[in-house]
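TL;DR need structure tokens for one chain.
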Amino acid sequence: MQDSMLNPDIPSPCYVCEEAKLESNLQLMQYVQQQSGVEIILALKGFSMWSTFDLVKKYLQGSTASGVWEAKLGKEKIGKQVHVYSPAFKPADINELVNLADHISFNSLGQWQRYKQKVLEGGLSAGLRVNPEHQEAETELYDPSAPGSRLGIKASDLADADLSGISGFHIHNLCESDSFATERTIQAIEKKFGQWLPSLKWINFGGGHLMTKQGYDVEHLIKVLKTFKENYPHLTVTLEPGSAVAWQTGTLVTEVVDIVENQDKIAILDISATAHMPDVLEMPYRPEVRGAGISGEKAYTYRFGGNSCLAGDAIDRYSFDHELQIGERIIFEDMIHYTMVKTTFFNGVEHPSIGLLRKDRSFELVRTFNYDDFKNKLS
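>> reply
TL;DR here they are.
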């Protein structure tokens, strides 16, 4: 069977989301909702390909936003619930969000007091982001509960606070974590914030629940969530995964533009790590490439370089059974969550197109980018 990513209708570079794989993830999430009684919403910061949102809203209960633009997108393209959280809101943000959001979570007591009247008059359900001071994220860059974190209010800082008007707590300390990390986090929340839970209406356990990853113990997650709901039946429980929604749902299709040699054979691609795959440099991590092995595993090893002038715009070394050819396609796996939303126009490097591989295997080119997009991003 021919590789679908070699379809001549797919340009290079191009992010390709596979509709069937996305729906499979959503169906699993629907199962978790039905069995546990929790609500799952989409974290737009992790996946905002709104051409798929007619499908997403069939299964999920809404979206969560990091600011005004995402809230607008969620309200317009998904509807249902719109939750919003930001480390800090400006007055102009609040003026718009009272007409967009249903739930809003504040990162500090100062922000809550500053906007309390406006939010409550606007009919929003208000919450506070709390910090359980319980670490589960393996990478410091992505750890909201690391010592000195600016994200969330510690229990010690709530001791004498006036929480009248607060309906919920928002917690986010996971990153591509398993169900046992969720269980430990909930235990930490009950220990540190248990005195306030009886007076709340909802609790949001944030994202990082990688329930669609192969090997994830979905039944254990359901058990953990059901137990919590049995202990606090008055609380509406929400999860807001980002990565899990689009996990393993598509690729970044690229091609070899040139091959040069300097100690290594270097294949220069029509993408840029810093412009299109910033996590490769930030985290760092090594994305999987279809048909490739690690350095030296197969007969021909190449270091991949980006097509920008940044000296460090490089991805990693990959080996192949054959010599790469100019024009050959290189397919990076699992590039639909986070990578797409982080893409920039760094160095004027052209954006990958965005496409959707339908369940019938037909390809729909959803979006292409041109000079005006680049120019307007700078204006």
